[in-house]
Design a protein that fits this description.
mainly alpha
Length: 444
């Protein structure tokens, strides 16, 4: 506890305890602090203080290994400033297949490789016959990396089994999104707190340390504990939409730096800086490259997608005109069509399974694609609805990401190679200055 990492950990635990007790005991008062963004900025300055202490100790006390926690906490600090000064850039950064997600993938892949190297080193040195724990960590990190990119589904646009199309709300080939939201939250908290905080703490006791050594369990270095607590604190407060993506990157760096401590070039400023920089650079390059890799966009697929979104547009338009239509009541919406239909069946969305879109089955539309509302590239069709702040303008569209498998459009107009059809729009479009008609519910 007298070490820099111990003091930083205590400060972070104190702040996290305040947040937990505040939300549980003083709900109204704590909610007011959250809405005023005081908790968010208090967390930022707590993280900044922790990073500063670790950095000073790394430079002045020659504890260069503390730079690992500085780099991990710096991820949260960077995202906070990005959200404050450039919110649009932040929201773009945390989207699927952008550099933050790809940096996370490379961090976990790098950790998987290093854990295998560490296991082989242990076996070669004769320390243990079967370094099962390192191999288990390598398998875990590899699985997490593959789960992040849905095992290459978005890259290669293959159709996953029907079970994942139905049970996974993202309609992708990954296991973690099949689990309920509460289940995913508890699992992530258990991994961060269990492996990164509780495990190294308990291993510090002589009896527990001897037991874990005997059975082959190896805790992460104690200098990483502040970073894991920071990730846990960020996840608990969840200050921004898709905060989980940022936490996953911090966790990926945590496993990467823990693996680095068990290889020959091990601990040091250059090792940590090099590993983190490589992940970020690869993330930027891969994010850019994946946007440039366009799947076959032959005329037949584009024509099929055009016909299908027009059919879906007519179905949604008919639904929007009914009094039960949920689409007219909601202010903003961006969802996969299948998820939307399932969630709002009581509002009549089930009729979309029997509309113009479903009638295309047997012509150019496969039955499974019709049932789960998939485009010709086996990716979900999306529905987006935007209403202006004054309520005088409204725009609803159904669309496909197109051959590049990415969202290029804004809330008010279709852009890039996205293929879509306007369901309805009224008022003046703030981006184009266009007025569709006089009747208040004009179909394009």
């Amino acid at each position: 506890l007298k070490s820099p990492e111990g003091l930083c950990s205590l400060a972070l635990v104190g702040f996290l305890t305040f947040c937990i007790l505040g939300e549980a005991t003083f709900q109204d008062g704590y909610s007011a602090l959250v809405e005023a963004r005081w908790i968010e900025w208090a967390m930022f300055y707590t993280f900044l203080g922790v990073a500063t202490v670790c950095l000073v100790c790394a430079l002045r006390a020659r504890r260069t290994e503390l730079l690992a926690s500085v780099l991990i906490v710096a991820v949260a600090l960077y995202c906070q400033l990005l959200f404050q000064w450039f919110p649009e850039v932040f929201h773009w950064s945390v989207r699927e297949d952008e550099y933050i997600e790809w940096a996370t993938v490379w961090a976990f892949l790098g950790a998987a490789i290093l854990w295998v190297v560490a296991a082989l080193r242990l076996r070669r040195d004769g320390a243990v016959k079967l370094p099962w724990f390192f191999l288990a960590l390598a398998l875990f990190c590899f699985a997490v990396a593959m789960e992040e990119i849905s095992w290459g589904q978005r890259l290669f646009a293959y159709r996953p089994p029907a079970y994942f199309l139905k049970e996974n709300f993202q309609q992708e080939l990954n296991v973690h999104n099949v689990v309920s939201i509460d289940g995913r939250m508890l699992l992530l908290i258990a991994i961060i707190a269990g492996y990164g905080v509780v495990f190294p703490f308990l291993a510090g006791f002589r009896a527990v340390g001897a037991l874990t050594h005997r059975i082959g369990l190896v805790p992460p270095p104690t200098y990483l504990v502040p970073a894991f607590i920071a990730a846990l604190t960020l996840y608990f407060n969840y200050p921004w939409r898709l905060t989980g993506e940022v936490v996953e990157l911090m966790l990926g760096f945590g496993f990467l730096f823990a693996a680095l401590s068990h290889v020959r070039f091990g601990v040091g400023a250059l090792a940590f800086l090099g590993a983190a920089s490589a992940c970020v650079a690869l993330g930027l390059v891969t994010g850019w490259a994946s946007a440039k890799v366009v799947l076959p966009a032959n005329a037949d697929r584009i024509a099929d997608a055009t016909n299908e979104v027009e059919a879906l547009g007519r179905d949604f338009f008919r639904l929007a005109k009914t009094r039960r239509g949920h689409l007219r009541r909601i202010r903003h919406l961006h969802a996969r069509v299948y998820a939307y239909v399932v969630k709002y069946q009581r509002s009549g969305t089930g009729a979309l399974w029997k509309g113009n879109f479903s009638n295309l089955v047997g012509i150019d539309l496969a039955t499974e694609r019709a049932e789960y509302f998939l485009d010709p590239w086996n990716l979900p069709y999306w529905i987006a609805k935007t209403r202006s702040a004054d309520g005088r303008s409204e725009h609803a569209v159904v669309y496909s990401f197109g051959p590049n498998r990415r969202r290029d459009s804004t809330g008010w107009r279709l852009l890039g190679d996205d293929i879509g059809a306007v369901i309805y729009e009224f008022g003046t479009n703030p981006e184009t200055g266009r007025r569709p008609g006089k009747d208040g519910l004009s179909k394009k």
